[in-house]
Amino acid sequence: MIRARITGTGSYMPEKILTNFDIEKMVDTSNDWIVARTGIEERRIAAEGEYTSDLATRAAERALEMAGVAASEIDLIVLGTITGDYPWPATACIVQKNLGADNAYAYDLSAACSGFVYALSCASDFIQSGRGKKALVLGAETLSRIIDWQDRNTCVLFGDGAGAVILEAGEEGDEDGILSSHMHSDGSYLDLLYQPGFGTRHMPNAETLEDRLPYLKMEGNEVFKVAVRSLTSVSLEALQANNLNADDVSLFIPHQANKRILEATAKRVKLKDEQVYINVHKYGNTSGATIPVAMDEAYRGGLLKKGDLVLLSAFGGGFTWGSTMIRWSM
Ligand SMILES: CC(C)(COP(=O)(O)OP(=O)(O)OC[C@H]1O[C@@H](n2cnc3c(N)ncnc32)[C@H](O)[C@@H]1OP(=O)(O)O)[C@@H](O)C(=O)NCCC(=O)NCCS
Fold first, then answer.
1. For 250, phi and psi rounded to 5 degrees?
2. CA-to-CA distance for 109 and 78, rounded, in angstroms?
3. Whole-angstrom distance, CA of residue 212 vs CA of residue 166
4. 315 lines ligand 1 (CB under 6 A)
5. Whether 285 is catalytic
6. pLDDT by residue (tens digit) across 133-164?
7. List of E strands, 212-303
8. Which of 185, 221, 263, 315 to mutate to test the pocket of ligand 1 (most atoms within 8 A of CB)?
9. Domains of the chain
10. Dihedral sign for Cα atoms in the order 251, 168, 320, 147
11. What is residue 204's predicted lDDT score, i.e. its pLDDT?
12. pTM reported for the whole predicted model
């Protein structure tokens, strides 16, 4: 079997930092409340005129550079996002143009916070099937543009950013690479976490704007419970499918939504604190971008070496959830 291997990672976070103290001046909240309930201290906000495609392009350039791969060698680009530059065409096509990846085909994948693990699963299947040899997989968001900055229940939680990986076909019999992917969804929870007024059901107009429908809506408390349950089950599913125990995992990189969700999940999966990568305090929830950004930071920070077992688990709107088990290749 030929496995897809990660040969480069990259990320880009916008320069502007919005702290909890800044948000205290915008809505009725406090730094203490936000830190205690979420672990978030600050988040990044894209500059005016800086779009999801720009963040994604910068992250992609860094991943290509690390892999030593030219943009023209890429066969496939998949971008997990819910905040594309336009509803269509795909923001992945804009990234393709920006990079000059003329030999790739490109599409966006809409699975909210699970967008990156879904995209990684598609690209891994593409490589394993032999259809292509090199793929660029991205998670990129400018959530600050769809946040209701008058709603304290949600505006404290999210931020902007982008992460990318390069996937390349390994050799027959290699033991490293993507070992397994397990993806799930359940559409019956749709209205616990969604953006009602940006599709064809409620077109943006004065009336829908008055009802604040173009913005992200979430029943945080309900989402929290299902998130912990789903992240736990899909992480255990990955361990079981690979005949591994929690102790075998070198690094668990979960979707970064809320520190309490990560801690509750890690405890249920029996992972120790030092096995769990957390950067939600710096960036908040950047949806599809959290996992590739965390992976890039962990690798560049010296936390990952060749042969390490890395478990990714994500949960998001849809609901969608999924896990990926990787034997690290670099
Ligand atoms: C949103 C979240 C942080 C709220 O934390 P919580 O402990 O569940 O808090 P609750 O929703 O029960 O709200 C408790 C109180 O805090 C208040 N509150 C909500 N946001 C607040 C804020 N920013 N500042 C101060 N108070 C706030 C609520 O109004 C509520 O007040 P009430 O009891 O008077 O009604 C938490 O539910 C969460 O993280 N949910 C999941 C989010 C997530 O992961 N989403 C994406 C999945 S990918």
1. -75, -45
2. 7
3. 38
4. yes
5. yes
6. 999 999 999 999 999 999 999 999 999 999 99
7. 217-218, 251-254
8. 221
9. 4-169 (3.40.47.10), 177-327 (3.40.47.10)
10. positive
11. 85
12. 0.97
